[in-house]
Amino acid sequence: MNSLQAKSDAQLVSEYIKGNESCLSILIERHQQKIFGYILSKTADRDLANDLFQDTFIKIINTLKRGVYNEEGKFLPWAIRIAHNLTMDFYRDKKRKKTKYATENYDVLNFIGVEDNAVETEIEHEQTVQKIISLIATLPEDQQQVLRMRIFMGLSFKEIAAQTNVSINTSLGRMRYALINLRKTIDEKEIIISN
After folding, report:
1. In terms of Cα–Cα distance, which of 178, 110, 187 is closest to 145?
2. In CATH, what class is 127-195?
3. I want to staple 155 with a disulfide (CB 3.0 to 4.6 A). Which of 65, 89, 159, 181 is the partner?
4. 93 pLDDT more than 70
């Protein structure tokens, strides 16, 4: 066990993928405090943080077992990104459910009409999102990265700067140029984005 504990995260991940289950225990033990602390700082609820921490490691295990881990030895930032995404997903889902059932006094017929409109709106929204995603793919890589982290992952510019090892001003600049380039492409191609 001592020889395993001396190994790097990358070596432990590699050995775990090859079937050495005890490597995962060492990774969890090594990073539990930071990952759990990060989740707790976002939720301020110990029980919820425990649930999300477990979900994080289930996702980590599934990703490693599928053999799609490619974070080049940066296990902890990768694990924290998973924890962050799961936490944001939890709050988005909670907000969606709250919004859907917020009105208590509604007429059944109106409710059915709203639901029908909601399906159409959802389809239009999904098509718009797909258009935007394909447009984002045409941007330079650094601009794509900041857009994805800001819009899809919900990270602050401070968090983006920390994860990409650049200054906050550089992150803001990349976002600004990304938006300018997107608008330019939309205008040039005369793309209609409905909301």
Report:
1. 178
2. mainly alpha
3. 159
4. yes
What stretches of 44-74 show up as alpha helix (H) in DSSP?
Answer: 46-66
Q: Which two tokens stand for residue 147?
A: 């857009």
Query: How far is 48 from 46, CA to CA, in rounded Å?
Result: 6
Q: Considering only CA atoms, which of 152, 144, 148, 149 is closest in space to residue 178? A: 144
- Domain extents in the chain: 1-102, 127-195
Give backbone dihedrals phi and psi of 73, rounded to 5 degrees, phi first.
80, 0
Q: Rounded to whole angstroms, how far apart are CA atoms 136 and 128?
A: 12
Given a contact cutoff of 8 angstroms between Cβ atoms, the answer to whether 168 and 159 are in contact is no
**Do 127-195 and 1-102 have the same topology in CATH?**
no
pTM: 0.50
Closest C-alpha among 115, 105, 52 to residue 79: 52
User: % helix / strand / coil in the chain, to the nearest 5?
Assistant: 80, 0, 20
Residues 45-69 pLDDT 10s: 888 888 899 899 888 888 888 877 7
Which H or E run contains 27? helix 22-43
Residue 169 corresponds to which amino acid?
N
Region for 154 from its dihedrals, namely left if φ exceeds 0, alpha if ψ lies in -120 to 50, beta otherwise: left
- Which CATH architecture fits 1-102? Orthogonal Bundle (1.10)
